Amino acid sequence: MIRSTVRTARKSRGCDACWPIRRTIKPGERYLECVASPDHGDLGNTGWWRMSECAGCAHRYGRGHLIGVDVVDTPAAVAS
User: Which domain of life is it from (predicted)?
Assistant: First the structure.
């Protein structure tokens, strides 16, 4: 990925990394925004690619230290 930036949500948005349940990132929550340029690596994207990743997914995929959130909501916890 070209760039990963920690952001604070101003509006509700879906987490693009949650699967099979797409968790909602609520206003005020921190999330990771990842951006990749066209034809970057093995992604196969033809245009700019942007994704939002909740704190739970960032933690699960080894990027939680970037957000610095101790309490993590996972999609499984949200579903129950």
Answer: Bacteria
* All structural domains of the chain: 3-79 (3.30.1740)
> Torsion angle of alpha carbons 15, 72, 61, 28, nearest 10°?
40
DSSP 11: S
How does pLDDT run across 18-69, given as a tens digit for each residue?
Answer: 878 889 999 999 999 988 888 777 777 788 888 999 999 999 888 888 888 6
Region for residue 62 given its phi and psi (left: phi exceeds 0; alpha: psi -120 to 50; beta: otherwise) = left
Nearest-angstrom CA–CA distance, 17 and 75 = 10
Q: Determine the Cα–Cα distance for residues 51 and 65; give it in Å rounded to an integer.
A: 18
Q: Which residues pair with 3 in a beta bridge?
A: 35
In 3-state terms, what secondary structure has residue 29?
coil
